[in-house]
Each structure stands twice: as C-alpha cells, then as structure tokens.
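**Archive record**
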Amino acid sequence: MERIRDLSSKTAAVIFTKSSCCMCHSIKTLFYELGASPAIHELDKDSEGREMERALRALGSSNPAVPAVFVGGRSMK
C-alpha cells in the first residue's frame, strides 16, 4: 500500500491499469485527449502488480481494482 501512496504522490495524475483492459485503455485515452500526461503503471507488467492490486482494493477500488485513477494523490472513485 505504501508503494501506491508513493507513486500517486509523485505526479499530478496516476493511473493504475492492466494492458489487456479495454476500460483502462479508454481512461488513458481520455486523459491524453484532455492534454494531461498521467503516470501510467500497468500492474500486469510490474513484478509487484498483484500486491499493488490488492492494495488498491484495500484503498477502496472496485473489483477488479483497475483502472484506478489518482489525481493530486487522492483516489478518484
């Protein structure tokens, strides 16, 4: 959970995704079309991805836990 908080506090917008998720792709596209440059963390390509997904659920993300969007260090549920 600490890694989630650390990553989400480093940039204005952070999106936790999975590369095969169509909703994740839509969220990323929306942010890019709005001119934002969010940090993208694809959990299925991260060695700690499963643990991070569990932490996202513990922080209140739905099941499945992605896409999870943090703006200004706060979760956008």
Observations:
- The mean pLDDT is 88.
- The two ends are 17 Å apart (CA to CA).
- The beta strands are 13-17, 39-42, 68-71, 74-75.
